[in-house]
Amino acid sequence: MTLREALLEAARRLEAAGIDGAAGDARALLAEAVGIARDRLTLHLGDDLEPGAAERFAAMIARRAAREPVAKILGRREFWGRDFAVTADVLDPRPETECLIAEALAGPKPLTLLDLGTGSGILAVTLLAEWPGTRGVATDISEAALAVAARNAARNGVAERLELIRADWFEGVTGVFDLIVSNPPYIAIDEMTGLMPEVRAHDPRGALTDEADGLSAYRAIAGGAGAHMCPGGRLMVEIGWMQGPAVADILRAAGFEAVVVLPDLEGRDRIASGVWPGTSRRNEP
Asked: CA 145 from chain center: how many Å?
């Protein structure tokens, strides 16, 4: 069997399993199985598929047909142009989360940042990589997630500037920060059954839902942020697309000013942001 024949057969199998983007997923998995860069796979489609690669490819396609995400099969995900390790212990990074990175980078460069519920570390690691000289702290309640974040910090050259703390939000965190970011669990308990199998069955439940109304994390973050923010510091959180007004109200009630809700690329509410009262002298232009 050639690579082309294997690719077509796998794409048909994934389509039959109801996988959106079956052809693209099959290409990504085939490239991994044969050890060829995905953008060069077309040049090798006439090659024979070696037995070992065929076995690896078949196993990967079986996992994808069972609705395991490609990133979890590959063990990595590209985010903001960088490679991040992804395991069953962390949330599979979503493209929408890049909107938070874009909004953060559009503002002043902070000297210090705090990432709450860091998971794979994508927010803290990406921002530190984009802001040389900035130092960060990232917390997560999961030791396994922190281990993944540590790998990603080392992989992207920011480990010396990032302190990882096992914590429930602000527990054990000291000092104040110019920027606090978070992508917390925001799915309400009654929405869990409607999630795609790739999410519901393969992302950590604690990274998805607060087992309540989906707003508990925002209450905790907004309520504790004031004690850890520099005057003029920013708080930025990812939100569910219907949560904008509720999260904005939570931020205002906690004392934040200049509260705004910002859209993702599809125009849906995605980021809530607020500024802590006072004039900052720590942020650099």
From this structure: 12
pTM for this predicted structure: 0.93
Q: Are the CB atoms for 276 and 235 separated by under 8 Å? A: yes
Are residues 122 and 165 both part of a single domain? yes
**β-strands 269-275, 229-238: how paired?**
antiparallel
Mean pLDDT of 85-113: 96
Spacing of C-alpha 232 from chain mean position: 26
Tens-place pLDDT, residues 148-166 = 999 999 999 999 999 999 9
- Specify whether 130 is located in the same domain as 23: no
Evaluate if residue 65 carries a pLDDT over 50: yes
Mean per-residue pLDDT over the chain, rounded: 95
For residue 17, what are the domain limits? 3-66
Choosing from 37, 66, 95, the residue where a domain stops is 66
Q: How far is Cα 50 from Cα 174, in angstroms, rounded to an integer?
A: 55
8 with 85, same domain: the answer is no
Flag whether 76 is in a domain. Answer: no
Contact call for residues 101 and 133 (beta carbons, < 8 A): no
Q: What are phi and psi of 65, to 5 degrees?
A: -65, -25
In sequence order, the β-bridge partners of residue 84 are 77
Kindly report, residue by residue over 236-245, the tens digit of the pLDDT. 999 999 999 9
Contacts of 109 (CB under 8 A, 6+ apart): 131, 134, 283, 284, 285
Residue 216's CB: how many other CB atoms inside 10 A?
16
Residue for token pair 């199985």: 33
Domain annotation covers residue 280: no
